[in-house]
Amino acid sequence: MQKVNVAEKLALFTDYWHPRIVGELNGQHIKLVKLKGEFVWHHHEHEDEQFPSMAQARAWYASPEYAEALTLRAQALDRRLIFVDGVTAT
Q1: pLDDT, tens digit, for every residue of 29-85?
Q2: Is the CB of residue 15 less than 8 Å from the CB of residue 34?
Q3: Out of 27, 43, 75, 87, which residue is the most buried by the measure of CB atoms under 10 Å away?
């Protein structure tokens, strides 16, 4: 596995709203994009969320902002959430 320095990769481009592939993990592309202005969140059916640290992933999972989605998820889906530690972005 090759580590990616996110700050270095972001410095390689200046345009906004144009995702760039900066790495790969388990056959999935890791993309970065620079945003400008309003960003409306959306999801991708077959892709994973990634966090800079395990602490941030656990904080997101326990957050009030995710609580409603977690309730709906538990009622509607038969899936597992897996936290994987040890993969770093820098």
Answers
A1: 888 888 888 766 666 565 566 777 778 888 888 888 778 777 777 777 666 666 667
A2: yes
A3: 87
Q: Is 70 exposed, middle or buried (0-12, 13-18, 19+ CB in 10 A)?
A: middle
Structure tokens, 86: 């040890």
CA separation for the pair 31, 23 (Å, rounded) = 7
CA dist 37 and 39 (Å) reads 7
Assign 3-class secondary structure to 23-86. EEECCEEEEECCCCCCCCCCCCCCCCCCCCCHHHHHHHHHCHHHHHHHHHHHHHCCCCCCCCCC
Is the model's pTM score more than 0.85? Answer: no
CA distance 51 to 88: 9
